[in-house]
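Allow me, if you will, to draw on your knowledge of protein folds for a short while. I have a record of one protein: its chain in single-letter code and its fold written as discrete structure tokens. I should value your view on which stretches of the chain appear to form regular backbone elements. Thank you for your consideration; the sequence and its tokens are set out here:
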Amino acid sequence: MSVVSIAAFEILLGAAFLALLMMGRLRRPPLLWPVLCWIAWTIVSLAASGHVRGGLPQIKKLYLFLMLLVVYSAIRSLREVRFVVLGWTAAATLSGLRGLEQFARKYRFSQLNHSDFYRDYVASRITGFMDHWMTFSGHMMMALMLIGAMLLFSRTGPKKWLLPAGAIVGAALLAADTRSMWGGAAAGAVYLLWCRKRWLVATLPVFVAILYAANPVDLRERMNSIIHPRADLDSNQHRALLRRVGWEMIKAHPLVGVGVERVGPEFEQYLPADTPRPLPNGYYGHLHNIYFHYAAERGLPALAAILWLFGQALWDFSRGLRGLPKESEARWMLHGAVAVIIAVMLGGYFEVNLGDSEVQAMFLAVLACGYVATDKA
């Protein structure tokens, strides 16, 4: 529903919470304490900033944590978990098809106008059913991890249609040209392949080499930009500067940060003296890095809370996997949840991916499904 309307999604989320509450079916999610610490320190940071009104949008976004509670309470079986993941797969496939259609139109338009496709496209990439390419890529990345986990570790149910679905989602993720989500997906894929058969990890460099050599629709230039960026176009210098500014903010305000939603307004005050002008092209409203951004915005205790959430989930799912028989159906969801966390953590070093409501909601739902699988392990 978040694909169609955030407002409708939030209304339905609240309605689901009230229904579960009235039926007495609410269950305490295992990640309750890191979530409560995150919420509490966000409020402390907001109060300490002196700009309460400006930070209210982020306070409203705390509402999304109900997703963890609602999904964990409403879903009680692995069969229901499978239905949810298959629903995500269908939605991601349709969104991916929409994105690929957008890509084809943009590429054709560039050819007809004899323009620099790479320059045109980086500033206006595909979005599928989303409103931004980063949100779209975050969904594609997480869906791809779950599709891969089901293909590699599930032993029941029809899986033939998952292969074309995964190919569409993977192609859409590649076409979105979001390097941070490429990296996250690659890290999650390494985990999945390593756990299935270690030699499969060697296929990833071969796959990348084939893509680089074949260079479909100018993909090679985007891959080259990871190491050799265009200074006036690619965001490498921009992100490096953001990390430097974030570090200055953290040093100045280690406990409560500069305040919720204050990173953008106060950015200029923390620019290092040796920063060349003009500044690199890019968006300066946040730090494009969840670790620097949340520490700079809300303080190191807030960063500790989000790392606690990641760490506890990884520990719980890994512990759940230990000792499970190979034929257990819980394995695919637990492996998928671990792969999603790894992908989000790595991708988060280059983008505030959890700042998108749609991405955060799906991530929390994946965690909840992982804990349902842990209960049934």
Remarks:
- Residues 6-232+286-376 form one domain.
